[in-house]
Amino acid sequence: MSQLHVGCLYEIFEYLNDDRSTLHSCILVNRLWCEVSVKIFWRNGCDYSVSNFNTLVSCLPNESKEILSKNGITILTKTTKFPTFNYASFCKVLSINHVRCKVEELLKNEQTISPQILEDNTNIVVQEICKMFMNQISSLEKLILIRTPTFIHYPETKDCLKNLSELHCYSNISSKTFYQLSQICQNISLLDISQKSPFISDGLADLVSVQKNLKHFILTQYFNDTISSLIKRLPNTLIKLNLRDFNFISLLFITEFSNLQELELSFEYKEDFIDFDKLSYASFPQLQILKFQYLRPNNEALVRFLENNGKNLKELYVGVALGYNNSNNSLNSAISKFCTNIRKFSGGFKNNELELIFKSCKYLKSIEIFCGDYLLNEKEALDEVVNYSHKNVTEIILHYYYSHIQTAELLPNELESFIVRWASSVPSVPQRSLSFVIVTNDYCGWGLTNEENMKIIKKYYDLGVIKDFKIRDYDYYDEFD
């Protein structure tokens, strides 16, 4: 088969990355399909199951197997046949914590041993598997670290990590490790740092300062004043900045990054928006995504920020107001005036506030509506969507605000009435289709997904009116493994 044929197959199978069942079926078609599919199937180490790690153990070199045997670790596969592929070489995404968890589970399944022996044996197996990864992976793309790794000292590590593009790590990993990483990895494009303790390794700032192509920086910060030295080292090449759980740090440093295309401020307390009033005067001419995941700044400052930066926005997530009785009128007016090019919008609304958004934002495709308490309930929100939305809107997301307990109130007949009205609400579109998403949490929102409502959704899914339906748990952000 030509190399072009292989390349085409690989691109096609890329779309099956999240459909493990179908991807596994492709493995069974023929040898070519198997060779291409298995590379994708084994690419993301975060998806490896316990059985995958059992296979990896069988791939270990004889030297490593002898080490396991000498330590009484009996998880070697029963067959003497070497695996068909060198599976470790296909890995492009590696989470050391995931390796540890699955190896520990594998050991527990094999025999009953004391906690101390389990920990010791886990360390040995993880070390040998990581040694194999460093030796077999030609170029790792993404690495996730929550503790100091042992493989950093292996000779093969330099070649394995030299082209690393994503690093997700805790800030208290040893300075020596960060220093060694700074000698190897200088072209990281995404750096995700979570500060889990007041201690920050000195080597972390060095790692940041040597980056030549850093585009995306994510910082989850829980302890004040200890992160400023790191922030000062950030290069002006950044185009994406995500700040989460900030504590008492001025936001004015953001003005240094005039090329930002994406800015996310995910704060739980209004005190975290230090100096946002001053930041609101800054101009970010390339900004396309602005996101406030939890709370948002006061309306006056946010309106001013949108006046300066709203014209190029494609996605806007305004979160919720700092106070329950805050008026959204000035903010909605600002959005309708300054943010007319947005495709995705997320926010909370009171009665008759959605009309202005739909009227002005003609390119809007997806709208996420926070429901409950002083905001619109489900029925009110869906009524306003049907009454005021235009033909470009194809996705509706109902989001139950995480901190307020309530029971979903949308009755089956109300849900069906909405779907029927939606399908015929735009005369120029014979049957208007809908992507419908419900975001729930432990306290509320589950009532909307009761058996009767699910029957109605399935009915209109089968009829093609609902083209996609999802139920998502509320997720502040994706904490790395």
Automatic annotation (TrEMBL):
It comes from the Eukaryota. InterPro entries: LRR_dom_sf (IPR032675). This is F-box domain-containing protein. It comes from Rhizophagus clarus. The lineage of its organism: Eukaryota, Fungi, Fungi incertae sedis, Mucoromycota, Glomeromycotina.
